[in-house]
């Protein structure tokens, strides 16, 4: 089974968590499979709140109404992919540059269901370059500060986020304490969002595997 088939398997398994109402929808290739699956039950939901222009376009293409988060209130569920997850369901996200809106919709949702293929589960976060969204005038300053924190920031040249900002991808990190590192980077002037999701981790991780979808709950972690 290839990686895309495992993403599709995880995405389809997430449908079981959708109970109607308004669904928070993330961004990326795994979420694209989820949007396609959501379209098969669109009569049972009120609509979606989207985390990116790309997901909005796909949702609308399926005839799923896209609502403004400001008028949707608290969402019961948010479904999104990840670039990495540890076993506490703390994540690295933002490979597609949608991290800021993703973090907002995740924060506004009661349950965060993360969908991924099994390769995304890691012991320690940081092998995947950590995306950091920055205000354009702060790019060099934030990059210097990230070097002081032990990383190697690379400017994602030519890429502008849906919010009009830039992305630095920080290589060579081994993030032993994701919660503390998220807060530390959030506190740098000019940082809009760091792609660590530890303050608001996922509640459920569904991994596509060659042996079927595997579900891990944050509550299962006892260490
Ligand atoms: O900005 C992008 C998002 O955080 C994605 O959820 C993440 O990059 C995973 O994407 P994919 O499902 O394509 O692996």
From TrEMBL:
It comes from the Bacteria. Substrate binds at residues 27-30, 80-83, 93-96, 120. Catalyzes the reversible conversion of ribose-5-phosphate to ribulose 5-phosphate. Homodimer. The active site is at 102 (proton acceptor). Pathway: Carbohydrate degradation; pentose phosphate pathway; D-ribose 5-phosphate from D-ribulose 5-phosphate (non-oxidative stage): step 1/1. CDD domains: RPI_A. GO terms for biological process: D-ribose metabolic process; pentose-phosphate shunt, non-oxidative branch. This is Ribose-5-phosphate isomerase A. Belongs to the ribose 5-phosphate isomerase family. It is an enzyme of class 5 (isomerase).
């Amino acid at each position: 089974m290839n990686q895309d088939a495992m993403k599709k398997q995880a995405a389809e398994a997430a449908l079981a968590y959708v109970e109607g109402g308004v669904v928070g929808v993330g961004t990326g290739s795994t979420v694209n499979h989820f949007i396609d699956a959501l379209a098969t039950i669109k009569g049972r939901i009120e609509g979606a709140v989207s985390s990116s222009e790309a997901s909005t376009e796909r949702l609308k293409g399926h005839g799923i109404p896209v609502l403004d988060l400001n008028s949707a209130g608290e969402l019961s569920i948010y479904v999104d992919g990840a670039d990495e997850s540890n076993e506490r369901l703390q994540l690295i996200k933002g490979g597609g540059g949608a991290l800021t809106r993703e973090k907002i919709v995740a924060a506004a949702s009661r349950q965060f269901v993360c969908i991924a293929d099994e390769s995304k589960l890691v012991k320690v976060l940081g092998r995947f370059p950590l995306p950091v969204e920055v205000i354009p005038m702060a790019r060099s300053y934030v990059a210097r500060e990230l070097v002081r924190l032990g990383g190697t920031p690379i400017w994602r040249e030519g890429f502008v986020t849906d919010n009009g900002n830039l992305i630095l991808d920080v290589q060579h990190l081994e993030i032993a304490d994701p919660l503390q590192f998220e807060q530390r980077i959030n506190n740098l002037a000019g940082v809009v969002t760091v792609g660590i999701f530890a303050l608001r981790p996922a509640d459920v991780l569904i991994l596509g595997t060659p042996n079927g979808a595997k579900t891990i709950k944050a509550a299962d972690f006892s260490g």
